[in-house]
Design brief:
2 copies of one chain form a homodimer. With 437 residues, chain A is of the alpha+beta class. Helix content of chain A is 39%, strand content 21%. A 9-stranded mixed beta sheet of chain A has the order 1-5-6-12-11-10-7-9-8. A 5-stranded mixed beta sheet of chain A has the order 14-13-15-16-17, with helices on both faces. At the A-B interface, helix 1, strand 1, strand 2, strand 3 and strand 4 of A face helix 1, strand 1, strand 2, strand 3 and strand 4 of B.
Chain lengths: 437, 437
């Protein structure tokens, strides 16, 4: 006889792996997102997990970020995707002749980043993206549609959010107005930190950039504006006649009218000029949603408008707007805070327990019930008593015990495991009852 | 102005990437499988795409198969999973104290194999696995449940299959009976080729193994048995009193009674002793389903019983039985043979087309309809005429054109794009009609 080497089973650090009773809940959230994206006419896309390094890093001339999982295979440098946006750009550029624009696609899939493992950071995580890509032009109503999707999704999750919206053209134009155009991107980096470091420190950082005190205060003042769309817009619209600034104002006005038309609850959305978002490619609308009861969760959904999705892959102009939800992190936070709905471990509404030699009869029943409800037979070789104990422990909501009598009479005592109540019913009556739970 | 380098967009060879109109169909098939697994009480599992090399290749002492995508990260050899079975073994071994046995899990996910690219072979493909794992013991009814799942899934796909079932103990025991025990695995490799190379060549190969002609003919004769379970069983059960052989006979008898209880159509399932399956770890029931109208598709679902799932990770005995469907390949075959159902490119049941300055009114309607049906507004800046053309081209089943009159009257001409018929209806009446399609 050979002796086997037993290897201690372990998984890689930084990778989420849920017990099935939790996985059911994550899958449910995924399905809700999918349904909402589909309902608004978005179509699914599933790009490969692996892409060529030269494609994923076209922007940086092929130099691969060290956080990305990359490896050589033959002559090719192959990478695991780190987001769903570059693959979308590649797909649209490859297939633009066969797509109808605006092209509305969603993709729910895993992306990979080999970051340092730490609490709340995952190296593999599910992104739920929806984007709308236009050819040459894309109206502002598309931006409103993204805000609508965010609102619908969190309503479906029963989570109250605040979606904070801005338009980058406001600050772009205002920097021009103040003759600070060449410093715009440094200024935005500083202003983006307002929430974290506070106004005093923002002023200090702006001064470190060589910006006069008076201009710094003006920048801080405008960035601090937040509240109702109409109020904020009317309080800033005369601050500058700069063209970019006025473009921002007009886009916000238009956006605001569509937000109303979509029926987004005014309590769930706000204009907040401190929202900037890190990504350099955003060029207009930007937004970040938080859960006000748990600000420590940070941004739970975000996105914005970009001028040109696929500039590294095609000469066609493809403006777009999109949103992204990091589901793995969101799920982890909800789980830690006991904000996930309760659920049964077994995934079965009904468990059938054989008593005596009735297994084949139980299976007949299972195949009858399974057509419409979740049903399983406990066919383990353990004793009847331990099966009853297990059903309790697993939290099965309903059971039927099938012995010789039940087989003869075709009447089954359907037991509600929560209340202990039993009803003697035919299988048709059982199904009718369980279908309506 | 900087000039950008345009990189020709391309994806890796051997990776499936569907247009969204096809992706919808693939997603639909995935959802059906998920529903059937869930209905029988299976719970979802989602293991990471990446695993440690020492775990995936525990069996071969850590030596990594060259087809597997592997790379170094720090001190670790990391691999992309090449199946869903080893990760399941790792998971069950790690969590066995917190699971209720029999543990019924399903996993639908991508696996990766860097094989030579060729038609019909994919380097990334979706596997749809369901397994039932027992602790110490697992009754034969579990094997029947797997056959039931296969049958239900292909019924849901509207595809007529033939599931060919055998039990390896028959040939194991028969080799013993013929005093060929030490040559069993070589013999099985030869007999497994019967379908491909035919009886004459099987006899030749057996003779090459040094097996006497008479014994070779006996092996060929038993392997060629196929048909109704009862008929085949009664034609072989007296061939040997060998213990393993009789174990196989008894397991097949028991399996047959459960197959009847599950109500699997007799035309969809057959006992076929030529089914052996390549994997060494199968120890009892084995099965392979084909589509008889398209034998060239090969095996579209397969699986079997194994004695010990996680022998490299734990001393616990964990017998199991499972099935696997290679969805990517199946989808590709169905697609090539025009066996996929038809579908609209837009994913929307209703498209709303603004005429004049009615966009916000259209959005109000969209947000009303989207709660219950798939609906989108064509808000592109193109002309009304080209929007009408697009709706036709995209194959949207219903449209509403919304001009000033419609906004005033709140009566909308719901146009069936297939028949050309129009009905003047309120939005409530439109929804009622579209909901019932």
């Amino acid at each position: 006889m050979t002796t086997k080497n037993i290897i201690t089973p372990r998984k890689l650090a930084g990778f989420m792996e849920l017990m099935p009773s939790k996985q059911v809940l994550l899958d449910g959230m995924k399905r809700k997102i999918e349904k909402i994206y589909s309902s608004a006419g978005f179509m699914p896309l599933d790009t490969p997990v692996l892409e060529l390094g030269e494609i994923l890093f076209a922007k940086s001339g092929g130099s691969i970020d060290k956080e990305v999982y990359a490896f050589k295979r033959g002559d090719s440098e192959i990478c695991m995707r780190y987001d769903l946006t570059v693959p979308l750009a590649r797909f649209v550029a490859m297939n633009s002749d066969n797509l109808t624009f605006p092209f509305k696609r969603f993709q729910i899939g895993k992306v990979f980043r080999g970051e340092k493992a730490q609490k709340g950071r995952f190296r593999e995580f599910i992104q739920c993206d929806a984007d709308i890509i236009g050819l040459d032009e894309l109206p502002i109503v598309a931006d409103a549609e993204c805000l609508y999707l965010v609102d619908e999704i969190f309503k479906a999750f029963n989570l109250k959010i605040l979606n904070r919206v801005s338009n980058r053209n406001i600050l772009f134009g205002y920097c021009e107005e103040l003759n600070l155009k060449e410093k715009t991107s440094d200024i935005l980096i500083v202003l983006d930190k307002l929430d974290k470091i506070g106004g005093e420190n923002v002023l200090k950082c702006l001064s470190d950039l060589g910006i006069e005190v008076e201009k710094g205060e003006k920048l801080l003042a405008i960035t601090s504006k937040k509240g109702d769309f109409e109020d904020v817009i009317s309080s800033i619209e005369n601050l500058s006649q700069n063209e970019t600034f006025q473009k921002g104002v007009n886009e916000l006005k238009e956006l605001s009218s569509y937000i109303n038309a979509y029926g987004i609850d005014k309590n769930n959305i706000t204009l907040d000029l401190s929202i900037i978002r890190g990504h350099n490619y955003y060029t207009g609308t930007v937004f970040e949603a938080i859960i006000p009861s748990h600000p420590e969760f940070g941004t739970v959904a975000g996105g914005g408008r970009y001028d040109n999705l696929a500039e590294y892959f095609t000469d066609k102009k493809l403006p777009g707007v999109g949103l992204s939800i990091g589901l793995t992190r969101l799920f982890d936070l909800l789980d830690q805070n006991n904000m996930l709905p309760e659920f049964n471990e077994t995934n079965a509404t009904l468990e059938i327990i054989p008593l005596g030699d009735t297994l084949t009869d139980c299976i007949r029943l299972q195949s009858y019930f399974s057509k419409e409800i979740k049903c399983q037979v406990n066919y383990s070789a353990r004793s009847f008593k331990s099966k009853m104990k297990e059903a309790n422990k697993k939290g099965v909501p309903y059971i039927i015990v099938v012995g010789e009598n039940e087989v003869q009479s075709q009447q089954f005592a359907l037991k509600n495991m929560t209340t202990g109540q039993q009803n003697l019913l035919s299988k048709e009556e059982c199904l009718e009852k369980l279908k309506n739970i």
